[in-house]
Write a structure and sequence with these properties.
With 558 residues, the protein is of the alpha/beta class. It contains 19 helices and 25 strands. The strands form 6 sheets. Strands 1, 2, 3, 4, 5, 6, 14, 15, 16, 17, 18 and 19 form a 12-stranded mixed β-sheet that branches. The protein has a 4-stranded mixed β-sheet with strand order 20-22-23-21.
Length: 558
């Protein structure tokens, strides 16, 4: 039997005009800005003018990812379609895919099988141009910074202390470290520079955390681009760049409306990575989903130690959000990999490997239930090779924590395969009340906040701060940034900072190499391990499989 690819499934689906989706979601035409037939921007004034009470907020997260896959985005979309099928008014809010993974290893990122957001080709490629606008704003600031130095350097900027990089939304290792300004006086001041991928740009975080144009401009003005010869910070506001940058971003700030394969309204907006940034869709999209739906389903990137931690400790703190329930997604295949089983053997029953790997799931579940004190359910994406014994083992282990396990089949069945999960989510929202608590308080020192996440969420013994990180922490504390939340950049493949350490490791310490401020985003970025903010392409990039026919039909996007 030949299975259809994700893009073939998406292309065979008859989409509804975006006006119909908007009407179904309760968005009047005056707030809609169409981008063709099946995409639109939604004007932010709808948030001020709507009288509807906010709905319930559902966060979807996952175990620590492995090459075996977990299906978190697919589950998020299938859950939303499942809620719609059982008669609930629901809106799903997701991140936009980056072109880096699309052309690199992962391929498209709009869900999979019969649980997708569409038009998937548009969403995975240029979409409505948000990422291009973010890149342009980032690089405008870089250009104005270098021009200021070229034109006399009135602010006495020390070119050795410039922290602002240019960006491009592509995996390109050649751009990690560059020297620019070569060719003589007319071509600028020579200096070392580098590029980040657009999703790692502070502008991405700023856009996703801003609630209005005024908030956006204020955050942009606070961005620190470097330091002067006296070690005083130099800001975007001092370079007088914030207004022009906001002009580039004014449309990008508006959430994008699309649909799932089953016609559920979907807001796809913003796209920071969770291993190097805060990993959540925009605050405006989440708040709009809450305002439009009785249930708003959203996801956070990578495992719960990264995306969910940052969703809860950063986004919820800044935006005043409180989740009503959390879904932790897992596969038996991935848990067996965490238990040491080779990828080629995942189709065979192995309760011993599952027993060794399941502590990874249980730690994530315990964090949600016991650290953040939120109602939780485990969604297991069942594969045909999963045995009843393996499923029963997971159910038994999770019930010991007071958490139910629901088998999900949304990849194959869409919303129908998510109905049971939808019913459990509704039950959690109506019968179980959380007592939402952050994993740390802002009045702790920077070191104490980092240490709290390492011990409470990662399960480590503590933190080792390298000398340069200690110097930076003192500097940022002296500058008045000590009360900011921390955004820890860490490998997505392990609870620890070692990507080869699977399962639920103990007895480790996390090494902090550098600490820097994202003053516009309002958080302290903590760099651990060998984290890079500009990925490279693999030996065989996904781009080699992508093509377009004479009549404009795209293939190879999964």
């Amino acid at each position: 039997m030949k299975y259809l690819s994700d893009i073939e499934i998406a292309q065979q689906t008859k989409l509804k005009p975006i006006y119909e989706i908007a009407k179904f979601a309760g968005i009047e035409e005056e707030y809609l800005e169409p981008y063709g037939k099946y995409k639109a921007k939604v004007d932010l004034s709808i948030l001020k003018n709507s009288k509807k009470e906010n709905g319930k907020l559902i966060l979807v997260t996952a175990i620590t990812p492995t090459p075996a896959g977990e299906g978190k985005t697919t589950t998020t979309i299938g859950l939303a379609d499942g809620l719609k099928r059982i008669g609930k008014n629901v809106v799903v809010a997701l991140r936009e895919p980056s072109l880096g993974p699309v052309f690199g290893v992962k391929g498209g990122a709009a869900g999979g099988g019969y649980a997708q957001v569409v038009p998937m080709e548009d969403i995975n490629l240029h979409f409505t141009g948000d990422f291009h606008a973010i890149g342009a704003a980032n690089n405008l600031l870089a250009a104005m910074l270098d021009n200021h130095i070229q034109q006399g350097n009135e602010l006495n900027i020390d070119v050795r202390k410039i922290t602002w990089k240019r960006c491009v939304d592509m995996n390109d290792r050649q751009l990690r470290y560059v020297v620019n300004g070569l060719g003589g006086k007319a071509n600028g001041v020579p200096r070392e520079d580098g590029f980040d991928i657009t999703v790692a740009s502070e502008i991405m975080a700023v856009l996703c955390l801003s609630s209005s144009i005024a908030d956006l401009k204020e955050r942009l003005s606070k961005i620190i681009v470097g330091y002067d010869y006296n070690d005083n910070p130099i800001t975007c506001g001092q370079l007088k760049a914030a207004g022009a940058m906001a002009a580039l971003l004014k449309d990008a700030l508006k959430p994008n409306l699309v649909q799932t394969l089953e016609g559920t309204p979907a807001l796809v907006h913003g796209g920071p990575f969770a291993n190097i940034a805060h990993g959540c869709n925009s605050v405006t999209a989440t708040k709009l989903a809450l305002k439009l739906g009785d249930y708003a389903v959203t996801e956070a990137g990578f495992g719960a130690d990264l995306g969910a931690e940052k969703f809860l400790d950063i986004k919820c703190r800044m935006a005043g959000l409180t989740p009503d329930a959390v879904v932790v997604v897992a596969t038996i295949r991935a848990l067996k990999m965490h238990g040491g089983l080779d990828k080629k053997e995942l189709g065979t029953e192995d309760l011993n490997a599952l027993k060794k790997g399941i502590p990874n799931l249980l730690r994530h579940v315990s964090n949600i239930k016991n650290v953040y004190k939120l109602p939780c359910v485990v969604a297991v994406n069942r594969f045909p090779t999963d045995t009843d014994s393996e499923v029963d083992f997971i159910i038994k282990e999770c019930k010991a924590l007071g958490v139910n396990v629901i088998l999900s089949n949304v990849w194959a069945e869409g919303g129908k395969g998510g109905e049971e999960l939808a019913k459990e989510v509704v039950r959690l929202c109506t019968e179980e009340k959380g007592n939402f608590t952050f994993s740390y308080q802002n009045d702790l020192s920077i070191e104490e906040k980092i240490d709290s996440v390492v011990k409470k969420i990662y399960g480590g013994d503590g933190t080792v701060f390298m000398p340069f990180a200690k110097t930076q922490i003192k500097k940022l504390t002296d500058l008045g940034f000590g009360n900011c939340p921390v955004c820890i950049a860490k490998t997505q493949y392990s609870f620890s900072d070692d990507p080869t350490t699977l399962g639920a490791p103990t007895g480790f310490k996390v090494t902090v190499k550098n600490v820097k401020i994202s003053a516009g985003a309002g958080c302290i970025v903590v760099l651990t391990g060998d984290i890079m903010t500009m990925p490279g392409l693999p030996k065989v990039p996904a781009a080699e499989r992508i093509d377009v026919s004479e009549d404009g039909v795209i293939s190879g996007l999964f």
